[in-house]
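tool=predict chain=A
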Amino acid sequence: MAGGADLPEGFEDLYERSIDLVYSYARARLGPAEGEDVAGEVFEAALIAFQNGKQASVTEAWLVAVTRNKVVDRWRMSERRMAKRHLVATARSTPDLASASTDDTDRLLLAMDQLSAFHRGLLVLHYQDGFPMREVAEQLGTTLSSAQSGIARARKALRLAYEGVTFDV
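tool=predict ok
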């Protein structure tokens, strides 16, 4: 890292030790270009923490957590519509949504927009990302039965939102 004279003490060492970890984590999930962007954002956040006197809290675990959050933010921004479209196909197995035609895709996407972030997250983790319910529970830090009841409530909320969506002409 060039220009180390202007950096807080210890930052350059942290960067050199951790850049490969942060970049490889982000790259595996987003590809090389976005992985590089996320790595830059993570170290920008670390630099700000250093400048605010919080060097002790900036560990490799902290860097990975920040990276994970930034990756998830990127997924939400860039793949939100794709995830919803995938959910359309999956949701067709739900009795109330089984009759949804391709023309109703936008209606379902609007219904997804009405769900809470938690419900949307459950549906996307399970249906889009393909995680079994046990892994969804682990990712959310909850029990399997709690995740199962949460997904049932999310599907119900999606059905209700879907039924209530109208288009203003």
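The CA atoms of residues 22 and 39 lie 6 Å apart. Residues 92-98 have pLDDT under 50 and may be disordered.
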